[in-house]
């Protein structure tokens, strides 16, 4: 029975879960099993979670004379409630039809991707679109901290004006310090290792459709997160809605 359930969870997550997460899911079903035992069964079944080599493309253009804001976040990667602190970044998505870029906005409390856009060019419009989608979806109150790197897109006049319109407080990483925006960098790294580097996008439409499936249906709604008590971001966010009701 345990081997059957291991097989189910491995294929249900498209090979993205290793023994730690599968062990958690089995224990929730009532199975008395250790991570070591699950790992042994997985090896016998020939199952290995997705692991892909890292390949980094620099998407930060901080060589500009645009205004930058102080680092309000200061590596405090915890927020008590949703819609208090958002972090944003851009990453490169390889595609045979032409390179693409993903702009994402993540809520530090729930780890949910609250807004994202995929486009052909690394422009201000791309990151503005992700921010607009996040604002329309969550309607946060004023004084939300919006943290990003010092990229020219985030430092642009249009982006700064949009933050003011939404009554958000801008925060930026220190120059050359990737750790200041570690949570969104971690999400993009996870996206690459679990999905992008294991997939060959032949067309831009395929890239958009499959990234939509990964973010909206797998990552936000299904993927269990260790920092959230091994539930998904949407499930974690629902706890706050129940408290407010």
From TrEMBL:
<dbReference type="InterPro" id="IPR001584">
    <property type="entry name" value="Integrase_cat-core"/>
</dbReference>
<dbReference type="Pfam" id="PF13276">
    <property type="entry name" value="HTH_21"/>
</dbReference>
<dbReference type="InterPro" id="IPR025948">
    <property type="entry name" value="HTH-like_dom"/>
</dbReference>
<dbReference type="InterPro" id="IPR036397">
    <property type="entry name" value="RNaseH_sf"/>
</dbReference>
<comment type="function">
    <text>Involved in the transposition of the insertion sequence.</text>
</comment>
<dbReference type="Pfam" id="PF00665">
    <property type="entry name" value="rve"/>
</dbReference>
<dbReference type="InterPro" id="IPR048020">
    <property type="entry name" value="Transpos_IS3"/>
</dbReference>
<dbReference type="InterPro" id="IPR012337">
    <property type="entry name" value="RNaseH-like_sf"/>
</dbReference>
<feature type="domain" description="Integrase catalytic">
    <location>
        <begin position="78"/>
        <end position="241"/>
    </location>
</feature>
<protein>
    <submittedName>
        <fullName>IS3 family transposase ISHahy5</fullName>
    </submittedName>
</protein>
<dbReference type="Pfam" id="PF13333">
    <property type="entry name" value="rve_2"/>
</dbReference>
<dbReference type="InterPro" id="IPR050900">
    <property type="entry name" value="Transposase_IS3/IS150/IS904"/>
</dbReference>
